[in-house]
Amino acid sequence: MPSPPPPPQPSPPELPISEHEDEIMAAVEANPVVVVIGETGSGKSTQLSQILHRRGYTRRGAIAVTQPRRVAAVSVSRRVAQELSVPLGDEVGYAIRFEDRTSEKTCIKYLTDGVLLRESLSDPELKQYSVIILDEAHERSLNTDILLGLMKRLIKDRASDLKVLITSATLDGLKVSKFFSGCPVLNIPGTLFPVEKFYSTEHPTNYIESSLRTAIDIHVKESPGDVLIFMTGKDDIDKMVSKLEERIQNLEEGSCMDALVLPLHGSLPPEQQVRVFAPAPPNCRRFIVATNVAETSLTVDGVVFVIDCGYVKQRQYNPSSGMYSLDVVQISRVQADQRAGRAGRTRPGKCYRLYPISIYQKEFLEATIPEIQRSSLAGSVLYLKSLDLPDINILKFDFLDPPSRESLEDALRQLYLIDAIDENGQITDVGRIMAELPLEPSLSRTLIEANELGCLSQALTVAAVLSAEITFRSTRSKDMEGKRKRQELPDGSGWGDHIQLLQIFESWDRTGYDPRWCSDHELQVRGMKFSKDVRNQLSQIIQKIAKGSTDVQAKKERKSDPDYRKLRRALCVGYGNQLAERMLHHNGYHTVGYRAQLVQVHPFSVLEGDEYGKLPVYVVYHELINTTRPFMRNVSAVDQSWVKPILKKLERLDMNKLSGGSSGSKDPEPLEDKQVSSPKKAMDVKQSDVDSKIQAARERYLARKGKK
Ligand code: ADP
Ligand code: MG
């Protein structure tokens, strides 16, 4: 008989959290809400849930641990299952959008903050949980911020047995404690070793090159120890990994130890993600090239050197134009310190900052701007409106940091234009169904309309493919090659990108989902399979919640609708707020409903013009993004007659009524200026001091940007 495999590595007893177990448990027993602050790697994510489990808290419900990032939910739950020697999905599981690995048995459940929000729609008191841990609260993700407000309500409403823990690596504990009427804050002292910091004399013109040089320098001159390199995104990481491998190979043989270069980011396939957690082979230095997931969400052991380029890629939304931008921006001081801290986990380390100390001191913001202040809030506002809690008035919702009045108004307008709320700001039946679909509001609305029009099957495909975020061109192919390859794919019959996505999926369907068809067309097999899975899930959900949904397998609908009129019409309704009108005598467009914005159809779009080359008068777009200039991404043609009702609605729009006040009524509740536009009032003096410094730094930054 072969001997059984050795038991998995037990939880390391030296983790700081474990040493404070009694103290933490005493606080949890005595208080409904406790804030736990501890250095990254101190065991908050992996140990707290296990401690509570050991102490019997899973007897009357499960423990939920939220994560802002999907990759963290998956990775941490896998680790905890390992430590408890149980198969993932049994006692320990995870749930992220479109992927649920939990079972009846699951009593420790890691889930994204978005999934917990959705669960609260069908179970407003979240009764299945005895403990809810809002992890990584310092990330200040939009959904975690909403959850903070929701928890505040829940502990008041629910029969006192719910325990809420809020954990963070850097969060201003006092501010959160105040928010929860003075709940205790436990500071778990860290065990960081000193980290020596080196600054560049100037900002590099090319941070990839500069990181490369620093990495090679470390490899040649420094003692053993892994190197963690922070990059801004997947593209940079891919570039960096291949260049670094090349340069290491070019080093004289035997001049230094072996090296292993590993990428780490959210869209990495799972089998590659786990590689960074395996210890380095003997006499080998690992280079981990990561996005800011390695800042606080994931702890990679063995790191002694950190290279910090000082940038991060940040998505920002502008509520006055409806436009997103994906900017590479300077990190905040808090982020810079977190990055440096990664070098001092196991022994004294070194951090190479590729920027001058003056930039760190004078230009970096103190802390990152919370996501709630740089996102479109349509989905969140719809969620809050759909809660059947008494007295819920979105504009009076208790936010840790309130969003601007402008972005709340933008959200209300968006929801009104797609019929999720009525002219008095009340959620509609359509809105309620939308809130239950795990999709952005535009796609939920499209599905509901498609169901009415009898083209649900097609719309499900479009929504699934868009949600699965399939990449079309393999990263290696050059642009021209990519375009040529893409021409071999269906072309959307000239109607646009949504139609093309549908046709691509249907072509694959006709091959019996042959993976070779995907690789022949340079489509990621993994992504395509995922979209098929997402489509199945969406179809099940909508059949459950939308009464009378048609047979989603009905394939006949295609034949009777060669111009995709029904589908395009459903898209027009769903994207009622993402509409653009062609400029007279031009092929440029301007957005409808926002401050007039000149925008272009993205060059990769398959939308075609008529015989004179004129593009359609009206189009809907999935996303408006400002890169080299404002582009509409994923665009499809819609008919002028379908647009009319939307334009009418825009004319009638009364923001005062929409925001909850009703012009005629005696008891108006207009949007209160002081509530949403001057958050400082609610905070103590110190905080507003910090805020004004942040504001000043931001203004300086914008001014400099403007000068360039
Ligand atoms: P925190 O949440 O406080 O940042 P974690 O609980 O995530 O800390 O991590 C505690 C320790 O557990 C880490 O220092 C690391 O050694 C180990 N660890 C965490 N996740 C994994 C993993 N997926 N594989 C191996 N070790 C891990
Ligand atoms: Mg953690």
TrEMBL record:
Record GO terms (molecular function): ATP binding; ATP hydrolysis activity; helicase activity; RNA binding; RNA helicase activity
EC annotation from Swiss-Prot or TrEMBL: 3.6.4.13
InterPro entries (UniProt xref): AAA_22, DEAD-box_helicase_OB_fold, DNA/RNA_helicase_DEAH_CS, HA2_WH, Helicase-assoc_dom, Helicase_ATP-bd, Helicase_C-like, P-loop_NTPase
Transmembrane segments: none
Assigned keywords, A-Z: ATP-binding, Helicase, Hydrolase, Nucleotide-binding
SMART domains: DEXDc, HA2, HELICc
Domain Helicase ATP-binding residue range list: 25-189
CDD domains listed in its UniProt record: DEXHc_RHA-like, SF2_C_RHA
Protein name: RNA helicase
